[in-house]
Structures are given as C-alpha cells and as structure tokens.
Amino acid sequence: MTKPLLEIAGLTKDYGTGQRALDSVSFAIESPQLVGVIGSSGAGKSTLIRCINRLVEPTSGSVRLMGTDIPPLSRAGLRRMRRQIGMIFQEYNLVERLTVMQNVLTGRLGYVSFWTSLRYRYGEEEIRHAYALLDRVGLSGFENRRADALSGGQRQRVGIARALMQRPKLLLLDEPTASLDPNTSRQIMQLARGVITEEKMPALINIHDVALAQAFCDRIIGMRNGRLVFDGDPADLTRDKLADIYGGYDDNPAPIAQEEPA
Question: Which InterPro entries does this entry report, sorted A to Z (predicted)?
Fold first, then answer.
C-alpha cells in the first residue's frame, strides 16, 4: 500500500497559557493536490502550516512527509528535511536590499556551503534554473531589480520562484494573498495552481478568502478553535458548513469564476 505524501496524525500545539492552538488535528494528502485551509483568525491555520516544517514546535503528534516523521528530527535532520519543503509567506520574507536573482538563489541555501551562500557563487546549472523559474512566474527581465523596488504581487512571485528553487516535495503557502488586491490575488492563486499541477506536488495553503479557495483548491480543510471541522470537496462547502467553520457566515460564499492554470 502506497504511503500518503503527507500524513498528519494527532497534531497538537499548546502554548502553555491554557490556549490550545491545535487540538489533535489529523488528515492525509495522498495525491498531488492544492489543499486550502480556511477558518477565522485564531482558528489554528498558520500554526498548522508552521508546525509542519517546525517553524513552530508541535506539542505532540506526528507529521510524516514521504514516510519520514518530522517532529523527532535532529537539527541536522530537520535542515535536510526542510530542503523538501518550500515555504511561501504572507510577508514575502525577501531580503530587500538584494536583487530578484539573489533572492531566488537563496532557495538553494540548504544545499550549498556557508561560503558559497555568502558570496552568491552558484553553479551554472543553478543559475539557468533560476532564470527559467523567473520566466515561469512572469518575472523575466527582473533579475537585477532590487526586491524593495517591486510591487506586492511581484514580490510574491519572487517568493514562489525561491520556493521552487529548492525543488521541494511539498509546498506550504501561509496566506500568500492576504496583502494583495483582488485581481493580483487571483493571479497568484492561478500561478500557484499551475505550478502545483505541473510539478505534481502536494501543497497546503492557509487562505482567508473562501471564494478564492473554492475557485482554485482541489480540497478544503476547515478549522475552528484548533480543530478540523470540515475536510472535503470545495463543492460541498455549503452555507451550513461555512457556519460550522466560522460560527456564523454572512458573506456570499459563491466562488469566483474558475480560471485556467497559468
């Protein structure tokens, strides 16, 4: 029997103040797909994403990527595992004073020596791959621009290219559209969807916009008070289900028109 690509079992996070951010969350991703995680602020969405790659240390439970349990890994083991996990942040997490190309190449930091990374002396194959990724995300010709000269949507495209530079087995996206206008948000979701389809990898996206999640995700996970309360097809996300997730839901949940992958 084939192991799930990502398997989470009993994942719990306590902050020691009586607050349980995650309460025994369990699910598996068995095929390459884009899984949207929705819920109110404080539902545990970001904590879930960050516990998977141990940016936040879980209190208990297991997170298995390709059969390897991540929480027990040593520092060296975690560094090797993080090569397999691309992370895209809401705040972009770019080095503002560096160029677009330099930021993309930092996606290889887990594979090169300290001195190579410090001097940005990457191999020809890596540089060719970085150029190809910039073309893929629509930033061909931007390689020498400084990150602080880019728009929000352009910065997020750099973040996607940087994550793909790792050649990951799993992609994590933590509210990548939260700081973007609606049109740019759709473009970024379209790009992410296209990349995931082409690379045939699983991806988990924490997203606050229900319509975007319904339009672009293959599957929706709904969280409330740290618990998983919905896991299913976007078409099954009825108003009653949304009320269960959000504790009442007044906005129009109708999805925007589906766009073709970039």
Answer: AAA+_ATPase, ABC_transporter-like_ATP-bd, ABC_transporter-like_CS, ABC_transpr_PhnC, MetN_ABC_transporter-like, P-loop_NTPase
